[in-house]
From TrEMBL:
Top-level taxonomic group: Bacteria
Keywords: ATP-binding, Nucleotide-binding, Transport
Listed name of the protein: ABC transporter
Any matching Pfam family: ABC_tran
Length: 300
């Protein structure tokens, strides 16, 4: 297991920022850590990266405990903090050299060249950091995080504040890096997760409210069928359709049926109409989109 978080609780004064948070991340995964502002994402990431202590609970990174083996954790983890702390007056290469010294990176010169290439900084390596666009500053932040070849990358809102072109480029870069590195990345935007991740952990007010693969969340397991009959039907009768989870009466003789199954439930609705002497005037199968799910899970 790359990251194991067990029942982590954290307060700031009397305010609870994390409430018994647990999750695990396997090696090789790219996981989105999604939640609205103030949900507790950065707090959790600071605890994982040893920059903050939890009040309670346990965190292991590559089997090292963040409390008792902070050094080992730091050497196996790369971290891009929320406000990427760069030295504006340093040149890109100079900054990476400085980082390499801090981390005692072996064969520093070759490794710096490698990372510069990998993050697409070749033409910018001789520039001052303050001269770079936000997108290129993020690349420098990523290069910094990757320099010591960490097995796990923690990226705190790596795409926030980028323009659409920069966004596409950084997403691509993260996906590329994710082929060889385990990544946990936070964001408050569902589309970011869809663009980069296989799995999402949703946090709201310090509580984990969902943890699943995207294909499960957006797949047929959240199936909804909108059906229109030629007559009014009792909701109770519709509730007898197999595997139906919820029935909502819409306007006219329309109903919204929710199912939680991978099986295509349209034929069950046709059977129901046939058995009850009803005609189906229209039928629409909808898959609940992730954006809606996210809003539902984080509205309170
Ligand atoms: P996110 O990164 O999801 O936006 P944070 O982890 O930054 O959320 O914050 C979680 C909660 O803890 C918020 O309510 C925030 O106001 C509070 N908080 C974060 N940092 C501090 C701090 N240093 N002192 C007091 N409260 C804080
Ligand atoms: Mg944050």
């Amino acid at each position: 297991m790359s990251i194991e978080v067990r029942k982590v609780t954290k307060h700031y004064g009397t305010q609870k920022a994390l409430n018994q948070v647990s999750f695990t991340i396997k090696s090789g995964e790219i996981v989105g850590f999604l939640g609205p502002n103030g949900a507790g994402k950065s707090t959790m990431m600071r605890i994982i990266t040893t920059y903050l202590n939890a009040d309670d609970g346990e965190v292991l990174v590559n089997d090292h405990d963040v409390k008792t083996a902070a050094k080992q954790v730091q050497s196996s983890i790369g971290y891009l903090p929320e406000h990427n702390p760069l030295y504006p007056d340093m040149y890109v290469r100079e900054y990476l050299k400085f980082t390499a010294d801090v981390y005692k990176v072996k064969n520093a010169k070759e490794r710096i060249d490698e990372v510069i290439k990998e993050t697409g900084l070749t033409t910018h390596a001789g520039k001052k950091i303050k001269e770079l666009s936000k997108g290129y500053k993020q690349r420098v932040g990523l290069a910094h995080a990757l320099l010591h070849k960490p097995k796990v990358l923690i990226l705190d809102e790596p795409t926030t504040g980028l323009d659409p072109n920069q966004l596409v480029e950084i997403r691509e870069l993260i996906r590329k890096v994710g082929k060889t590195t385990t990544i946990l990345l936070s964001t408050h935007i569902m589309q970011e997760v869809e663009a980069m991740c296989d799995r999402v952990i949703i946090i709201n007010k310090g509580n984990i409210v969902a943890d699943d693969f995207l294909k499960n969340l957006k797949g047929d397991s959240n199936q909804e069928i909108e059906v229109e009959f030629d007559y009014r039907v009792e909701v109770e009768l519709l509730s007898e359709i197999k595997k139906v989870r919820e029935v909502k009466e819409l306007s006219g003789f329309k109903y919204l049926l929710s199912f939680y199954t991978n099986e295509d439930m349209r034929s069950a609705v046709f059977d129901f109409a046939h058995d009850n002497g009803l005609k189906i005037l229209s039928l629409n199968k909808l898959n609940r989109d992730l954006e809606t799910l996210f809003h539902e899970l984080t509205k309170n």
